[in-house]
Amino acid sequence: MLAGAAVSASGGPARYEIRVADVLDDRWAAWFGGLQISGQGEETVICGMLADQSALHGLLAKVRDLGLCLISVRRLDTDQAGNETP
Hints:
The chain is of the alpha+beta class. The chain is 33% helix and 33% strand.
């Protein structure tokens, strides 16, 4: 029971940064639910708040559906979330 409580506590809203190979412009923001899209060299950073783990998996499915190469997924601390610039 204790382990289940820990999982649900960390599964709530959080800010994520997803990096993919290739460059997408901000026109893709609607496809990614209004998240921030920014190009950084030959990579794209998709950043924003997600409601829960289910939303994260949905976002990763969209990355897969576009055939993008996933580089990294980071859950940002509240300190990082306020200081990140996409």
